[in-house]
Amino acid sequence: MKVGDLTATLDAIAPPSLAEPWDNVGLLAGDPDRDLEGPTLLTIDLTPSVLAEALSVGASVIVAYHPPLFSPIKRITPNTARGRTILRCLEAGIAIHSPHTALDAVSGGVTDWLADGLGTSGDRRALVPADVARPGETHKIVTFVPRAAVERVRMALASAGAGISGEYDQCSFEAEGFGTFQGSERANPAVGRAGRLERVPEVRLEMSCPGRAAPLLIETLRAFHPYE
Fold first, then answer.
1. b/e string for 172-187 if b means 16 or more Cβ within 10 A?
2. Is residue 31 part of a domain?
3. Tens digits of per-residue pLDDT, 33-44?
């Protein structure tokens, strides 16, 4: 396994596209083609004591929630605590990865974890949703849904701003076909049974949407679609 394999997995868990524009996330230092020859150390902040622990266990990667390389720096020397830490990581071949606000924003991430701690079970949509598309562009949202749930999903998406074309609303396109899936024994499928390959009739539902409505539409789709 390579450093790049690990960082690709971490990026899949907390996509960098969800990070705030001012943030610095992902692989910050290290060679993605280097072999993972030691453990991965997790920390909130990369401090000298954390580095000492990483060196003592022979870590290959440090995943630091807060990015140790944040504001632009012009030199990495031992004249500062941060410089000494980064320089020692580079000398030891320890890669540095940071998820920070990408892990905050992803569904099930830090923000949801904090809400769980407060006992919050209601609407968790952001007051100012993160842009997942350029606001001025028009996009298409596509989903595959059982026939019985098409109208429910279509009306929900329409209520959130999808399917508007000039003087027309609720505009959509449908194509019928068959979908296949096999859930693990821990799955709870809305159609069929877990642990068995299913082939079920589905409808491909397409609706146009403005970029500014994309975050709300994705949340709406998750709320009204019958699948897990």
1. beeeeeebebebeeee
2. yes
3. 999 999 999 999
